[in-house]
Amino acid sequence: MNITKHNHFIYKRSSHPRRILVTWQSLRHQSSLVSRHPDASSEHLQKQHQSHLYRISTVNLLRNIFLGKVFTSPFLFKYGVACLSKIANSRSAILDPDKNALLRALIKPMIYDHFCAGTNKSDIKKTLDYLKTMGFKGVILIYSREIPAMPVEALNELEPLTQDEDIDIWRDGNVKTLDMVEPGDYVGIKFTGAGPRVAQALAQDRDPPQQLLDAMSAICERAAAQGSRVWIDAEQQVFQTTIDRWTVDMMRRFNTNGQALVSLTLQAYLKSARSTVEQLLQQAHAENWTLGIKLVRGAYIGSETRTLIHDTKIQTDECYDGIAADLLTKSFPGFSKQDFPNVELFLAGHNSESIRKAYTLYKGLLQKGETPPPIKFGQLLGMADDISCELLAMGEKAGQQVEKDASAPMVYKCMNWGSVRECMHYLVRRATENQSAASRMESTVGVMQKELRRRMGF
């Protein structure tokens, strides 16, 4: 699914449409928001009761159908992702979409615009403003720069530099990202985007270069001053242990005022995920800082050591749901509810059952007068808009704005920005993730096709 800068928001039905909570009151509220969007027409608004997909433009509708067909076709997916991967990993100018106008003209409107916020400040601002107009509490914006794939052996041969230009470029990109977000928003950080020598330090479990420490200090101090927050993205397992260590050092420094300025990313598909949470809780409690956790299932299954990952999807689901529940109920072993460390939880995911379970538990705890850790929800731009909209509808059903209702879910959209070239690795991961949910995509394509036929009068 897609939300673009010039088109109406997408409502996507899940395979269980009755689970989408929509009331006449919420539709009236949504229509009042859409009426402020320049592309909203009165005729369009009058049809809001006919389809949840009425807000999506016909161009985006066709693009969703096309991409859905690609993701659910083994043949098309195999060769499509092979082409994207070739482009992402190539150093040839011919295969560089930032230099090859024809290649860019193919990739940008069909794939990039579906999943990414934009290439420049003006386009990104339109995307972010529109998302918030639709009712999202905030956004997570990530600078997409990643290093070209390099074997660990090649990283080991790199000579250290006193002044690394890659770190400067990375720092400037993240500062630009801060310039484009508002108080309450998040900036996502990928350490490997700082260049091969930073990746070398990560792979060798060394301390960060001083130049990187200075850059991160500047980013965090800037975020704190403007009321934004920082989360550190997960990456390949060869880097992840060191990423976690560096992130804990940052939380130890910046999460001391009762809030999580910095959050780390925990991947529930790893067998070590639960023990990692226990260790983090112990550190946060002993050192008196707030633990910020973004809980995801994981996005690097194609490149990870398979033995590190749960054997089945069910085990991953149980791990994700169990960690979320035990953090919300403050029931991790070794802690009582009274001495449980400060935790802020961000559930990032596209599994509707997990999101519903967590929100139902959270709301129930509040109704009992308990004080669960603050919780936020987020989905990627171009994916799982049915879940996002269901969460928004839950808040609207209460007849209150999110900020006025402690139990209403705070919903965010996460997106990358950068040039088409810089976003290629991200786009490959999104394509892979969509294909892994083929049954869900097939259902979505069917709903989209039905909406297209409705518009054509069939």
From TrEMBL:
<comment type="function">
    <text>Converts proline to delta-1-pyrroline-5-carboxylate.</text>
</comment>
<dbReference type="InterPro" id="IPR002872">
    <property type="entry name" value="Proline_DH_dom"/>
</dbReference>
<protein>
    <recommendedName>
        <fullName>Proline dehydrogenase</fullName>
        <ecNumber>1.5.5.2</ecNumber>
    </recommendedName>
</protein>
<keyword id="KW-0274">FAD</keyword>
<keyword id="KW-0560">Oxidoreductase</keyword>
<dbReference type="InterPro" id="IPR029041">
    <property type="entry name" value="FAD-linked_oxidoreductase-like"/>
</dbReference>
<dbReference type="GO" id="GO:0004657">
    <property type="term" value="F:proline dehydrogenase activity"/>
</dbReference>
<comment type="similarity">
    <text>Belongs to the proline oxidase family.</text>
</comment>
<dbReference type="GO" id="GO:0010133">
    <property type="term" value="P:L-proline catabolic process to L-glutamate"/>
</dbReference>
<feature type="domain" description="Proline dehydrogenase">
    <location>
        <begin position="174"/>
        <end position="442"/>
    </location>
</feature>
<dbReference type="InterPro" id="IPR015659">
    <property type="entry name" value="Proline_oxidase"/>
</dbReference>
<keyword id="KW-0285">Flavoprotein</keyword>
<dbReference type="Pfam" id="PF01619">
    <property type="entry name" value="Pro_dh"/>
</dbReference>
<keyword id="KW-0642">Proline metabolism</keyword>
<dbReference type="GO" id="GO:0005739">
    <property type="term" value="C:mitochondrion"/>
</dbReference>
<dbReference type="GO" id="GO:0071949">
    <property type="term" value="F:FAD binding"/>
</dbReference>
